[in-house]
Specification:
By secondary structure, the protein is mainly beta. The protein has a single domain, classed as Sandwich (Jelly Rolls). It contains two helices and 13 strands, in the order E-E-E-E-E-E-E-E-E-E-E-E-H-H-E. A six-stranded antiparallel beta sheet has the order 3-4-5-12-7-10, covered by helices on one side. It has a three-stranded antiparallel beta sheet with strand order 9-8-11, with no helix packed on it.
């Protein structure tokens, strides 16, 4: 990370690398203090892999800007396929999930507000096995710590 007086710059390809199963993402900057501002990640999702279980965030919003690929987002009972240049906002309290479509990875920029909630996806990457099914109990416990719950 490069520092300028009062500003931060993270060069392309830099940032803390995390994995969620076969997917990967980079936290593009640290969450400062208690993280009440926002946090930004660059996410690469693999096709053919189920996304997260449907879930609701009670205390934060997510926003996504698609850079490449095709992703099916589900919010509540509605589904939408989005591609390059699409913007998706998931307000707190809205059930959602996603999956990458096609045969190539999808990439997007994700924004979390308040920013401290980016730690949920960072920790999720640490508890999910690279090969094999996830442990739903561990995921539910992690989600609960971040005011998030799985929904049917």
């Amino acid at each position: 990370m490069t520092a300028l007086p009062g500003a931060r710059i993270t060069p392309p390809g830099r940032g803390r690398l995390h994995r969620i199963g076969p997917d990967r993402f980079r936290t593009k900057g640290p969450v400062v203090g208690d993280g009440d501002g926002f946090a930004v990640i660059e996410y690469e999702g693999r096709p053919g892999i189920p996304g997260p279980p449907a879930h609701v965030h009670r205390a934060f919003e997510e926003a996504w800007f698609l850079l490449e690929g095709r992703v099916e987002f589900r919010a509540g009972s509605r589904r939408s396929v989005v591609g390059k240049g699409a913007y998706v906002l998931v307000p707190r309290g809205v059930s959602h999930t996603f999956r990458v479509l096609g045969t190539t990875p999808a990439r997007w920029v994700g924004v979390f507000s308040p920013g401290r909630y980016v730690r949920l996806v960072e920790e999720l990457g640490r508890i999910l096995p690279r090969n094999g099914p996830p442990d739903p109990r561990r995921i539910a416990e992690l989600f609960a710590r971040y005011d998030t719950e799985m929904v049917p």
